[in-house]
Amino acid sequence: MNNKRELIAHFIYWLFIGGILFLLIFLGERKLTYDEIVVNFVYFAVINISTFYINYTLLIPQLLKKSWYYILALIALIAVMSAAKTILAVLYRDVLLQHKDGKTGEITYTAIHIYALSSVFTSGFFIISGCLIKFTLAWFSNINIQRSLETEKKDMELQFLKSQLNPHFLFNSLNNIYSLAYQKSDKTADAILKLSDIMRYMIYESNDSWVSLSKEIEYLKSYIELQKLRFKDGAAVNMTLNGEIDDQQIIPLILIAFVENAFKHGVANDHSDPIRINIIANQKILHFSITNKKSNGNKDEVGGVGLNNVERRLQLLYPGRYKLNIVNSTTHYTSELMLDI
What we know:
This protein is an alpha+beta fold. Helix content is 61%, strand content 15%. Strands 4, 6, 7, 8, 9 and 10 form a six-stranded mixed sheet that branches. Helix 5 (112-182) packs antiparallel against helix 9 (305-317). The longest helix has 71 residues, at 112-182. The chain starts with a helix and ends with a strand.
């Protein structure tokens, strides 16, 4: 027995068996003598407990996979223990085999072969109950191991997804800064400073499994400011916040892919039709939506990592607690996400 659950299970089992024995011995019509009590308890403790633990600690671990050897070992164990009980019954015939009729006072004795047969069934009971306890505990242990493996697998997958997302974002941002530098724009230095702030959040803040919603939104604002530096007249973005944007917890970097896609594949400099971002939150629900005018220009063939990444992370961390709706019309692209937070 190597864990707390196993110890508790054995304690409850023997407490139950001991309770039944107590009721049979001490609450019967006939009061037992001291010698009779000693014999009955020795009989129970030595023979039946030995049967239970020989099977539990030796036969099941060593021979269960070798089914025929295990069956033969069980037969031998039952035979030996039943023989020991029968010998004990012969030696203490008046204690174990004697019966007195409560009305007539007539004393009778159980036939030795009947007692031997009952001993076989008693040994079988302790063997079967031992197997049931062993297999039940093993089943629970396997469930815990499986859950632990699933958790480790999920954690590894999430780490991979986050490591995939950061280079994806950095790749696009550096392309933007390169474009500014190529144009010898005065905005290049500001862009590098904004990227530095964003990378600081990604490296330090987003390492936690959860971040506050307010920090995640500040990160989105910094990203939008970085993108605005790309355009001569600034990017056209309308961002509205409603409700309670406080310390609600959210997984980091989950909203950025939608915003990044809007800039990457949409029209971001049309002030008559800006990118529209709407965030509504309370203590239980987050509603995020973003709509952008579609660009007729060439699409980035490398794209697609971001949204696939987001959806997989949602499946892992918000199972049954999110709703993602994508509307791809002829002129606009809309992403709508609802989260139970």
